User: What shape does this take?
Amino acid sequence: MIAAKYYLLLSAAVFCIGLFGILTRRNALIFLMSIELMLNAANINLVAFSAQHGNLSGQVFSLFTMALAAAEVAVGIGIILVLYRNFDDVDVTTATTMRW
Amino acid sequence: MLIELLIAVCLLGAVGVFLLPDRYAPRLSFGISVVAIAVSLYMFSAFDGAGNALLEGGKLAFETNAHWLSLGPYDLSWHVGLDGISMPLIVLSTILTSLAILSAWTPINERKSQFYGLMLLLEGSLIGVFGALDFFVWFIFWEAVLVPMYFLIGVWGGPRRKYAAIKFFVYTNVASLVMFVGFFLLVMGAGVTSLGLPELAQQLATGSVSSVGGLSPQQVKVAAFFAMFAGFAVKVPVVPVHTWLPDAHVEAPTPVSVILAGVLLKMGTYALLRFNFTLLPEVAADFALVLVAIAVVSVIYGALLALAQQDLKRIVAYSSVSSMGYVILGLVAFNLYGLGGATFQMISHGLISGLLFLCVGVIYNTTHTRMVGDMSGLADRMPITAGAMVAGSFAYMGLPLMSGFVAEFMVFSGGFSATFPHAQLLTAIAMFGIVIVAGYYLFAMQRTLFGSFRVATDYEITRAQPHDIAPLVVLIVLIIALGSAPELIFGMIQDAVTPMTELTHTQHAAMGSMELRDVVSTIGGVVR
Amino acid sequence: MAGPLEFAPAIAALPFVSFVIALFFGRYMPKKGALAGITATGGSLLLAVWTYFAVMGNGEPHTEHLHTLVSVAEPFSLELGILIDQLSALMLLIVTLISFLVFVFSLGYMNDEGETGLPRYYAGLSLFSFSMLSFVMASNLFMAFMFFELVGLCSYLLIGFWFREDAPPSAAKKAFIVTRFGDYFFLIGVVGILATFGTSAFIGTGGTESFPALAEHALTGSADHVHTFGFDPQTWFTILALLVLGGVMGKSAQFPLHTWLPDAMEGPTPVSALIHAATMVAAGVYLVARMYGFYALSPTALAIIAFVGGFTALFAATMGVVKREIKQVLAYSTISQYGYMMLALGAGGYVAGVFHLTTHAVFKALLFLGAGAVIVAMHHDEDMWKMGGLKNELPVTYYTFLAGSLALAGIIPFSGFWSKDEVLYEALRLGLNDPVFMAAYAMGLIAVFFTGFYTFRMVFLTFHGEPRTNIAESPHQYGWNMKAPLVVLGALAVVVGLINMAPLAKLTGMDLTYLHHWFEHGGELLTVEHYHHLLTEVSGVHHVESSTGLMLGSGALSLGLALAGVAVAHVLYNVPSPEEHTDKLGSIKTVLFNNYYQDEYQVWLAEGLTANVARAANTFDQGVIDGAVNGVSSVSLFAGERVRKVQTGVVTNYAALLTAGLVVLLVAMGLLGGWF
Assistant: This one.
């Protein structure tokens, strides 16, 4: 059995990739993808700990997360569509009307 | 139940006025305020209280004490009732509000429903402040006063109304916070589970205070005293936390100024009397010199500032700072004439400053200026208003047979007989205020009322309406009545403050035990 | 027993009624309130006469409690009551008489001259009469202070009667502020006396003692119930006496608080006669006499009173020498004469002081009313250099004015001679023992010369010589209502001195010192004997034994000086067309014309110093205190302005901040939790 720490390393790597994407990219769609990556990093953790502790709570949680991710994509795409309609772009840095 | 009735009349009246169209508002609100006067006068005649509301043996008039709810470890009650200190203040509030509403008929021409509704809301809150005996109830009304006042200044005020309203609101609200902290420090120290003020006072009078969070019992008392003092001092106001007052007065419309000077400032002195000087008299005695120094500075400095002003409203505003200094002096003296005189001065100053603001208001309504240099010889065209202003000015100067003289004389007698060090000298210094006050009012009168007629603004001078003049006449009559027969209210005031003077009879012996280093160590303790 | 004393409160109440009538209904009345005032003061006069004879009859003082202002068990109540004794009965007579005559005179001076605002005028006069009479009758110092202030208000209102002009309101303001400054000390004194003795009664009633009696006990033995606040009783009583003296000096226009009185001449002349010559200004002196039992206990206070009095007498007399306006001369002469009264009281001459108060009230009211008549005749021009030769046109005025002038100058046998002579004699008797009193006496004596001079300079310039203007050639004539008061007062000015002819009594051995006997009766502690006892036994103030030679010498000396003054005036000014000799005085004239620059420094104190301090305080208040308040809000606003820039609107930045926060949190937890 692979030790949990390798899963954690994998999940950290995936999370960091997602975070990197959010911090560096400007396309809203790529934001969404990056968020998916971060969510999945959390899922990896949940599943890994579930296997280590030998109960199913973690796996149940990961199913919830997937459902949440689906919902999030649905809402997120909607927001991006509105963003596109208003700003003719999906660049997040142009939509700064809610700043100070 | 009469206090509740009085508050309900004002608050329900306020709602009614809010909902009705503008054209009904002036008369309706005046009618409601007259009903409030009638109720309060009935209460005054049926007053059967005795002693001090907070102290042993006090019998309250119109008391209601019902458990309300429990909040954390504390039991909160709806506890209202009156003694000889609060009764006259309630009558003052109802009378002044009514006169202020009458005086608003001329100058207030827009959003009338809201204006008069807020005035009634203010009146209800003020009555609540003076009637409440449970801290929680009291605090609700205390804060509730700010809201209508904020809008009254901020909506109907002069050119810098927003600045003045925000300054007033923030200043007094921060002060409330400081006071709140101080009060709860004391509650925790006393270890009471009720926020009723009588319970707390009697606990403090008989039991000891325990230490709170690293502060020794004495430090708890001192810290609580000064936190509360700081909080109330802003409302009074005393120097150096007085600067909101002139701004608020200058920007507020005249009827609001009347309430602000006449009643709102008395909330501060009333709270000082009820909280600081009733709950912690020994701390007050220990720091008598500090407090009396504040009083003397307020008197002299406030009077000097009034001397330098050109705006009639600012003159009255700063002279209020000066007069409130006398109240503090009387409180610190802590004997019958000191405390009684201070309470009497609250009523007297309410009437006199109200009268002067009303006079300034009438002048402003006709000339559209309040600057001393912009007008002269008004007595020629506005004889009645000028006469009222002369009467008010002399009342303010402490002319005998007017209420100000009795009040000041009692305060001075109290101060002179007080037991704090150098009481005679400090009182004598404070008394110099009566010379300066003569200086600025005589100066203002000479410049504005006398000489050849001239007004810098191009408005036709018309005779004032009866509803402008009536409040002036009522106030002059009241001032002279109280000045020639002070026993009208002083009997009940005396009855209520006498138990307080017995509080410190033993504690005065220990006076002077608190030195500067104790103050420093207390501050250090609070910081820790 | 409805004796006259039962009606004593009505003496003051009647003018109050006329005040109310004149104020509210005056404008509907034919003479605008004058008739109400005349009726009321006339009634008061009759009652005062009746009271006077009642006091003469039974001799005992009458006290009555009227109203309790504030009633407390401890430490003292504030009460109003009346005290009718020899002193107040005499003063009531003076005040009601002069009030009555002034009301009558006002019919001519105000109504006939077509003044407007008469209800206000008569209301003010009535209120003044009420306040002054109440002050005179006051049974305690607290009440005396109350009405002392109220007469000040009336003075303010009446000086500023012509408020549409610039000068009267200004003069009124000055009068009130200067006297207020004195009253400040008086107020401290009243508060102090109440706090010290627990009473401010002038006379003991029903088991309580008066405060002078308590003070006496404190000095001679038991100091029970007397709190002297850590001071030696003698010192403390002197302090209290001097504090009350502050009010006296303000009201009685003693140096350095005399500056308001000449300005007060801006008021209508009848007002000057009533308030600023005969009665209100006398209030200060009366107060000293009223509580003489207290002053007699403090030799220091007495010396100060005498010295200030003597100095004021001389000081004011020199200024009267150069004035051009008739009322100004009279104003300075008033100040000077009140100096004499103070000198007398300070020198232990209680009777002399009150005597001079009485005669002065009569002849100075006469002179002012006479001056008023002249002013009406001259169409309201007061400059003496525009008059001249009025003697033939205005004979009634001339002869009555002359009687008053002779009295003022102190020429035998006119009233002023007797009283002034007694004042100087008392001062001399004390002065021979004590150099301070000798100096005061010397100043008073020199002032006699100036008094004779300025008085007759005024008479000669006004009535003698050739008319210097057209108006003076054919002056405006006036009616009986102005002449009648002049005649009454003129007659009195001649004879009122007869009530106390001490030199003549000494010379002939006849019993002619009626006033002295008058004050030998009355309340046990209010008699002249008792005061004498206090002076000698408690204070150790000793007069030189009275002798015929000394008395006649003193009288001859002052009479000689007065005659010399008159003679100089005669030489210089009793010529057909007199010149202004004042120029010969050179720079002294400038100093005198400017009143020794007293006004300048007082105005500087009020406007230069106080107003500048006030402006500085205002700048400080707006800049530093309010600046600090605004500073706090500015700092908050500024900080908020900066911090809100964090809210960029760019999602990436928020995410970066989130991440950074997480990292910081992790590192901090790691450091504190010991991970590293």
